[in-house]
Amino acid sequence: MTEDKSQKKNRKLFKYSFGCPPETLQKTAIITPVFSAKKFAEYCKTLTSFRGRLCSGMTASKNERKFSIICCNMGAHFAGDAVLLFKETQVKQIIFAGSCGGLAGCNIGDLLVGENAFNGEGFTRYHMQSSDIKEIFNKGELIPADSDYTKSLQTFLEDHIKNKKSLKSGNIFTIGSILAEDRENLHLIEKKRFKAVDMELSAVYHAAGVIGRKITALMFVSDLPLEKPLWQKMSSQEKNNYNKTIEEVVRFSVEFAVI
Question: b/e per residue, 195-205, with b = 16+ CB within 10 A?
Fold first, then answer.
């Protein structure tokens, strides 16, 4: 396929996926698999909205600066494909806003900056008779965020967050199946000094690297899979921290996007 035909195909795929032409997206984009565009609209002005078969979102502005918000489906392949399609746009820098399960040193409601993400993707390899997470560690790789962009995010957060003890940073393990989050696997992941597990980060970091875009991630700790998994009832204080941090992730993502 020639380059022109390939580009036309990708533009058509972009419009199918996003419901808008590639020119709609701005130079800075927030992508999230867990928050709605309506949630972000509480902290900025909505200019235009779009909805495709795979993603939805809006063009927004704050302090006279425009940026894009993209809501993708949960899972590495959906989030990764969305970022790859940014190649057809003017997007230059990406903020991933997500959630994660915290490990040692984390509490429900903490903010976490993802410095690197380990590629532990792949549903099937966790559910084969021969599955062994040690092999996944041997075959996987640690995929970095953009170093300078991530340092800028950390500096921004340190200047704006009130409870500095709730701000953490470190490496995230992207796992391929929620049902693979058993105690044995989680203990080994924790032993390897990962701060948390998630379902998308290594894919979006890799995709951003493929298309040459800067990327960083701001996440909130939604649960503690070894101590208090998603289905266990939170205390009133934990629920308060959880809700407060959701607001912080959304607000800080918007404010960082326009500096």
Answer: bbbbbbbbbbb
**φ, ψ at 159 (rounded to 5°):** -80, -20
- Mean pLDDT confidence for 158-162: 93
Which ranges constitute the DSSP H helices of the chain?
A: 3-18, 37-40, 76-85, 133-139, 147-160, 183-191, 201-211, 236-257
Coil, helix or strand at residue 141:
coil
Query: What pLDDT, on a 0 to 100 scale, did the predictor assign at position 105?
Result: 93
- The answer to whether the CB of 58 falls within 8 A of the CB of 70 is no
Q: Which of 146, 160, 143 is nearest to 206 (CA)?
A: 143
Which is it for the CA torsion 169, 170, 174, 175, positive or negative?
A: negative
Residue burial 14-49, b: 16+ Cβ < 10 Å; e: rest: bbebbbbebebbbebbbbbbbbebebbbeebeeeeb
48: which 2 tokens? Answer: 């235009």
Phi-psi region of 79 (alpha: psi -120 to 50; beta: other; left: phi over 0): alpha
Q: One-letter amino acid identity for 79?
A: A
* Residue 2 reports pLDDT greater than 60: no
What tokens appear for 53 in the block? Answer: 């078969």
Q: What domains does the chain contain, in order, with CATH numbers? A: 3-257 (3.40.50.1580)
Q: Are 32 and 82 within 8 A, CB to CB?
A: no
Amino acid of residue 194 = F
CA triple 72-49-38, angle to 5 deg: 65
Instruction: Return the structure tokens found at 110.
Output: 């903490």
Asked whether the beta carbons of 156 and 100 are under 8 A apart, the reply is no
Could you tell me the two tokens for 242?
A: 């959880």
